[in-house]
Write a structure and sequence with these properties.
Structural class: alpha+beta
Radius of gyration: 17 Å
Distance between the termini: 18 Å
Helix content: 10-25%
Strand content: 25-35%
Order of helices and strands: EEEHEHEEEEHEEEE
Oligomer: single chain
């Protein structure tokens, strides 16, 4: 990537990876997957969540993506314990009361079948007697662990959380641990992958 132009990286963050380059404790860092100087995370994603993480070298673009004032919708696929009914979905749409105040109205729908996603390591813990369901939830806020708290507030704890899209940017089949450069007016780069290692060396897949 040429340093004189704005760049936006779409990364499919695996479970157990922090939204920072430096590892901490049992969590890995982005340096194991992305060896690009001068890019910074635009909108964090918890270590125990998966999916789309954006990085850019453009401070203004970073602010537009990360700042809730710009109202860029973030879309999540959420596997929950139990089978949410229409009342629970409507509560999510209207906004639920959390300990730091009510949430803004959101989009929420029950997915008829699970999304085509990768196997997670470690797998989620499920109870044989309790079914699970997948929701698609769209929010325009960025509170700490907000989606998990929202589903818990309506009685359906989150088991697995995947961010599928941020505004117009989506995973679109990007494999876990791989990244690609978004098209910001020029040709997009092909998807890249990294094999985590102590040296952080990358290999294209």
């Amino acid at each position: 990537m040429h340093p004189a132009r704005s760049s936006l990286i779409l990364f499919n963050k695996p479970y157990g990876v922090l939204s920072q380059f430096t590892p901490e404790g049992r969590w890995r860092g982005l340096k194991d997957f992305i060896a690009i100087p001068g890019v910074y995370v635009a909108g964090r994603l918890d270590a125990d969540s998966e999916g789309l993480l954006l990085l850019t070298n453009d401070g203004q673009l970073q602010a537009r993506i990360a700042d809730p004032r710009f109202k860029m919708e973030k879309t999540y696929w959420v596997q929950v314990e139990g089978q949410p009914d229409e009342a629970a979905l409507e509560a999510l749409r209207r906004g639920v009361q959390l300990n730091d105040g009510p949430t803004r109205p959101a989009s929420a729908r029950l997915l008829a079948k699970p999304p085509a996603v990768w196997h997670r390591e470690p797998p989620i813990r499920v109870r044989a007697a309790i079914p699970t369901a997948w929701l698609e939830l769209g929010i325009r806020e960025g509170r700490n662990r907000q989606v998990r708290r929202m589903t818990a507030a309506v009685g359906f704890p989150t088991l697995r959380l995947i961010r599928a899209a941020v505004g117009p940017y989506a995973l679109d089949g990007l494999a876990p641990g791989s990244w690609r450069e978004a098209d910001l007016g020029g040709p997009a780069a092909p998807a890249q992958g990294c094999t985590p290692s102590s040296s952080g060396s990358s290999s294209t897949r």
